[in-house]
Structures are given as structure tokens and as C-alpha cells.
């Protein structure tokens, strides 16, 4: 299993956060934070229940994936690299396979969140359309405010107005609160896909 450190999510955007990050992470010469993962073998980075699949199609170890995601959240807008330190010997083919597997895994998660975003947009659009349609019906067939109008018709009209405002409310709730988690996650996964991954042997570790 990968060796990981419990994460504490820090606030972003102030000097204190910057100092805390410097205390928690090493940095490359060009200022990128280094996310360190230490394992005995490359195989430890993959799901142990998926051993028969080829490496590039296997699921990454959940602890490993969650640790990288939590680190990226904590690092925020700072650049970063992922440095994987392996105790056992490995060859260049295994190293390239690991990189490809990471890209495949996080690209899939990125695509999932984009699909969720599109679904949320469709929900927003349909609710807005429903609200507009109901308000159009009410304005077109608005009943006169006279005693002759039957009570059930007035109740029906009020019900349609309430339904329209509920549709608008749900649409704006979807817009304000529904999109944010999916957008944030897709951004994190996209950063990981684009990040540099360095795999080194623990015995031959060099300083960056």
C-alpha cells in the first residue's frame, strides 16, 4: 500500500497558507510543489482486486488516488509534480505503463465530472424552460379578479404561479450549487492528468 500522510485542508490565498505549504511540501527549483508517494513496488499503486487486468486498464489504488487529489486541493493554484519513490527495482516499461495508467484513470474521472456538468446544465435549462412556460400560461390566461370567478379556478391559477416560481428557484439552485462540485472536481482531475510524474528508485533518489 502507498505510504501517505493524513491531509489537513488549508485555506487558500494568504501568506499563512503559503508558509504552511512550504512546511508541508518540498518544492522544485522552479517553484512547483512535490507530491511525494512512497511505495515498495509499482504494483502497490494499483487496486489489488484488479490483478488480472493489464496495468493500463487497472484501477489505481483508492488511497493513492485520494491522496493525490487531496494534495492538489491543498496546493490550490500552485504548480505541482507527482514524485513516486519505489523501493524495489523497476524498468522503463513499468514506469511508462504507470504514467499511462494514471492518465487513463484521472482522464476517466475528468470525463465523468464533465458529463455531470452537462447533466446539471440540462436540468437547469429544463427547469428554466418550465418556469417560463408556466408564467407565459398564467400571463396569457390570467383570470380577472372578480367575485364571479369560481374559487377552484383561482386556486388553480395560484398553483401554477407557485409551480413556476418553484421551477425558477430549483433552476437557480442548480446553477449556483449544483455546478460547483462537478466543476471543481473536473478541474482537479484535469490538473493531475497534465501534471509531470517522476518515478525514481529509493536507493538512487536525487534532490530536485
What features would you highlight for this structure?
single chain, 208 residues, alpha/beta, four-stranded mixed sheet, 4 helices, 56% helix, 11% strand, elongated
The number of domains is: 2
Number of helices: 4
Shape field: elongated
Strand content: 5-15%
Rg, alpha carbons: 26 Å
Helix/strand structural class: alpha/beta
Which ranges are low-confidence, i.e. pLDDT below 50, for 5 or more consecutive residues? 3-13
Explain this structure.
The protein is of the alpha/beta class. It has two domains: 15-111 and 191-204, no CATH class; 113-185. The protein is 56% helix and 11% strand. It has four helices and four strands. The protein has a four-stranded mixed sheet, with helices on one face. A hairpin with a 5-residue loop joins strand 1 (26-27) and strand 2. Helix 2 packs across helix 4 (151-194) and helix 3 (92-140) packs antiparallel against helix 4 (151-194). The longest helix is centred in the middle third of the chain and has 49 residues, at 92-140.
Amino acid at each position: 500500500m502507498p505510504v501517505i500522510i493524513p491531509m489537513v485542508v488549508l485555506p487558500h490565498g494568504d501568506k499563512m497558507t503559503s508558509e504552511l505549504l512550504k512546511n508541508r511540501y518540498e518544492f522544485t527549483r522552479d517553484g512547483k510543489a512535490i507530491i511525494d508517494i512512497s511505495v515498495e513496488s509499482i504494483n502497490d499503486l494499483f487496486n489489488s482486486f484488479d490483478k488480472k487486468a493489464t496495468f493500463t486498464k487497472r484501477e489505481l489504488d483508492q488511497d493513492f488516488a485520494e491522496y493525490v487529489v487531496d494534495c492538489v486541493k491543498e496546493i490550490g493554484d500552485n504548480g505541482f509534480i507527482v514524485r513516486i519513490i519505489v523501493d524495489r527495482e523497476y524498468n522503463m516499461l513499468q514506469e511508462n505503463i504507470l504514467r499511462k495508467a494514471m492518465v487513463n484513470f484521472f482522464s476517466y474521472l475528468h470525463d465523468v465530472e464533465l458529463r455531470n456538468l452537462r447533466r446539471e446544465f440540462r436540468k437547469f435549462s429544463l427547469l428554466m424552460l418550465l418556469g417560463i412556460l408556466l408564467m407565459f400560461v398564467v400571463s396569457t390566461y390570467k383570470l380577472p379578479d372578480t367575485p364571479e370567478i369560481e374559487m377552484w379556478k383561482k386556486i388553480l391559477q395560484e398553483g401554477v404561479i407557485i409551480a413556476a416560481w418553484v421551477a425558477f428557484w430549483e433552476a437557480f439552485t442548480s446553477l449556483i450549487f449544483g455546478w460547483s462540485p462537478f466543476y471543481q472536481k473536473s478541474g482537479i482531475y484535469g490538473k493531475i492528468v497534465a501534471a509531470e510524474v517522476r518515478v525514481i528508485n529509493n536507493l538512487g533518489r536525487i534532490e530536485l
